[in-house]
Predict the 3D structure of the following.
Amino acid sequence: MKKHRLTGLVVGACLIFLAGAVSTSCLAHGDKAPQSGLSPVVQELKDLIDNDPNLYRLFTEMFDQVPLKPYLTDPTGQPQLTDYSQMLKQLDGILTQAPEFNQSGLVGFPINAILDWPMGTPAGAEAFMDPRVNVRLKKILQEWSVFLESPESCYVLSDDPEHGWFGRDAKEAMPDFVEDFICDPSKPYYGFTSWDDFFTRTFREGRRPVASPKDDSVIANACESAPYRLARNVQLRDKFWIKEQPYSLLHMMDGDPLTKEFVGGTLYQAFLSALSYHRWHSPVSGTIVKTKLIDGSYYAAAPAMGFDPASPNESQGYITQTAARALVFIQADNPDIGLMAIMFVGMAEVSSNEVTVKKGQHINKGDPLGMFHFGGSTHVLFFRPEVSLKFDLHGQTPGLHSTNIPVRSQIAAVTGASGQ
């Protein structure tokens, strides 16, 4: 089966960063130290900034606009960079590093850490929406993905008590890892062949059963994710850049002809933490109508949110309309649902939105649709205005402090003629 991939960003909405844009433990890993010259993909970004007067101004001002206090350090506690030359050198070093474990139990985002305060400035908000910048960032992130898919990235899959993914702190954060996921502790790196192989791990059979597999009125959770927002009567166009970050369907779906079907409908958004299972599953049984990969931004955040220490964590509504993302339309078998859509959104850092289904394919509720690579992210379910739904968010109120609902468990039910 042909696979569609999009290198995009990710930052799970629970985004927490590793200590250090270039961690000392990684630099101690001898062959992982940055080279004296910039790699070709980073050099391309440097040339673009150096030679374009507006981008030169923006990338200079985004560091100048970060106040000295209280922003002397980045969100990881490392000294805040003061110009884009330092930024480029850090980017170059990160290309041969894999994310370490930390005590938060979340994957680190070293690029996002060094850009976090600058992307919250007016200059940063403008610069990181520039299509030319995002073309270069995509190349940089694709280059990093090559390393993260290589055996050399396994060095973080160690038993180091603080930084290893099978060490003391990691085992405390993931006490049921061996029981939950397919792995073999008797093999090197538990049998994983790369960081990405570890990151896209799969549950053992029976660990995440499908909710009511025979009942098409029950809608299953598409990702191992925490509720972020539930919105009704969503508009075709809206001022998504303001603080409330309303959804704007035309921008979310990149002007797709099917967008009009969802005007006035219901959206459910949820986010993945760094320890989440990152594969996607169908919330309904039905037929794939189409899939679409949408290029977008990588480090753009909502201008109204200002300095978010886990940006774009607080900009999740905004980035559904601006970030690199994948869109899947499904014609549900249940006529009370009919056409629905799911959007998988990359947030900062390397992510690949990989769609593994194709047009015309029939899928059952709970079947795989694709996966995120290399980080956390967020996703959205779209329902038409004719669909009457009762959501079951497992006793939680949507927001940044909610916790994961297991993938493939019930999150909603259709009410109506065949949904009673």
